[in-house]
Design brief:
The protein is mainly α. It is 76% helix and 0% strand.
Length: 42
Amino acid sequence: MIALKEWHVSHSRNVPGRLDSLKARLSMLDRKGEDTGLTDDE
């Protein structure tokens, strides 16, 4: 049970920051896709 709690703490740390980062990346890809199209890697 301790291992699960430690896993949860380590994986839920800074969730709002991660979400903001992903939203910014998604927005950038949306703009790029509208202008030039995206590659398979993007």
